[in-house]
Write a structure and sequence with these properties.
Blueprint lengths: L7 E5 L13 E5 L3 H11 L4 H4 L10 E5 L2 E2 L15 E6 L5
Parallel strand pairs: 1-5
Antiparallel strand pairs: 1-2, 3-4, 3-5
Length: 97
């Protein structure tokens, strides 16, 4: 029986959310997909859940997640696979006029 170690990825935290991660700009998360990695982030820092997910458990529309430079919405969404060299970033939407 073989065991696999989940992929560990660096997740970059935007400034407005760093107060929920102890001030950390980058957090190590595990998960083979973007969705699993963000779920692991919320396991580590439960107060982030309300800021990232809606009541149905879906990522909020204004929360943009990137794997390296690619928005996961244009890849496989939360099922986007992660490699050990990938960087995951949460980028809050900016509105203005």
């Amino acid at each position: 029986m073989s065991t696999t170690t989940p992929t560990t990825t660096r997740l970059q935290i935007p400034t407005p959310l760093r107060s929920f991660t102890g001030g950390n700009a980058t957090v190590a998360v595990t998960g083979d997909t973007a969705g699993a990695a963000i779920a692991n982030l919320v396991e580590q820092f439960p107060d982030l859940k309300q800021h990232l997910y809606d009541d149905e458990g879906t990522l909020r529309s204004f929360v943009n997640v990137y794997v390296n430079d690619d928005d996961i919405r244009y890849l496989d969404g939360p099922d986007t696979r992660l490699g050990s060299d990938d960087t995951l970033s949460i980028v809050p939407a900016v509105a203005g006029g």
